[in-house]
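Re: export button greyed out
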Amino acid sequence: MTKLLNGNQLAIEIRKEISKEIEKNILNQKKRVPHLGIILTGNDQSSITYVNSKIKECKNIGIKSSLVHLPVGCLENRLLEEINKMNQNPLIDGFIVQLPLEKHINQDKIILSINPKKDVDGFHPENFGKMALNMKAFFPATALGILTLLERNQINISGKHTVVIGRSRIVGSPISILMSGKSHLGNSTVTLTHSHTPNIEHYTKQADIIIVAVGIPEFLKGNMIKKGAIIIDVGINSIKNEKKILGDVDFHSVYGKASYLTPVPGGVGPMTRVMLLKNTLIAALNRKNK
Ligand code: GUN
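Workaround output, generated via the alternate export path:
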């Protein structure tokens, strides 16, 4: 039997916890409500949709948000200017620059220009390096969301063999670091596979846990996993001319063989969004001024 890991339900619970903490440690202390800045560039429809849902979630939970939307073709310097304003603005607790950026913009330069103390995405090398060294830092929201989904469903990953498919900075790389790390959320034995890994099923067939973040619809099939494996699907692939989105896991062939499986939608997605709220709350609690 396969149990579906319900990210929607858990995200509701965690939002309640965040709300309570905002009330207790911010509002009751007469401090300003947390404030998230969002910088969006261009007109990529998926990015616009993601940003709109982030704004809506902030509003619902009592976190203030401010959006700066720069047009298609905007120069790198213009984006750097906006980042600098957010870095300097004492009223912004944390901010994100929505990715991907247009090709003419140097992503590394952009991420390096964000003040690490306001980097609630956890993408700046200072936060990424601290995460790899088991130090306190902002951790990327999707990785944190996956770990929380596993932990709150009492799925112990210590000593288990995890295979991660995809080595992106946003998901694959940080989740491999955190799951293999020496912490109560880690201690797993991790194999990181990617586009240059020959015969990926050789690894997936041995895995206790598989995290799939490749951006290829229905990439992981039932015949690539062992019975009872735990499958986490990070994919959000919108299918042209159809209104549906597909995950990176072929749900129908995996369902029934896996012990746990995250649905798409309603699995990892809502957990990612709620972890951004949590990181914003942490940034607000870290602030020195009232
Ligand atoms: N694009 C896709 N996922 C993310 C994310 O978590 N943060 C940002 N900034 N951009 C993204």
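The domain at 141-268 is CATH 3.40.50.720 (Rossmann fold). The button fix ships in the next patch.
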